[in-house]
Structure formats: C-alpha cells, structure tokens
Design goal:
The protein is mainly α. It is 88% helix and 0% strand. The chain has one domain.
Length: 105
Amino acid sequence: MGEFPALCAAIYGGLLIGALYDALRPLRFFFKSRFWNGLLDAAYYALVFCMVALLLFYINGGVPRFYLLLGICLGVYVYARFVSRFILAVAAKIKIMVAKRQGMD
C-alpha cells in the first residue's frame, strides 16, 4: 500500500475510533458508578489498542510509522470536532421524540 492510501486508511481508522467512543457514551447513563465507568473506559482503551494494532498491521505490516499515528489522531480529532456534535444532536432529538411518544401511550 502506498503512503497516501495508508494515510487515508489511518484517518478512517481514527474516525472509527471516534465513532466507537460515541457508541459507548450511552452506556455511561446505565452504569452510574465510578467503578463501572472505569471498567468501560478500560474496555474502550483495550479495544482501541487492538484496533490500532490491527490497523497498523493491515496498513503497513505492523510497522508504526509516525505519519500513520498522526493520521489516526487526525481522524479522531476530526470526528470529535465535527461529526460527534452532529451525532449527539441527532441522538438528543431522538431521545426527546421517544420520551414524548412514551408519554402519549
């Protein structure tokens, strides 16, 4: 794989890591204790570590190049800065619609 496609794959991997974080956010409302939140955080970071290792193995044969690590960080940043806001706003609207619908029944 060339350097530019590898960088694009790393950025895409970072976007997936950001999406995974947003997917785990609702679980924090079910587990309010610090212990369970800590356990969720540990599970998230273990999963992210595995994702990054597999991503680097797939892209570059497991060789951690600096530009690939920066690409992953850039993907996470772009997701957190731009995409996450939109996803959270849509999720909040869905939550309000579901709450209203449950009140109507």
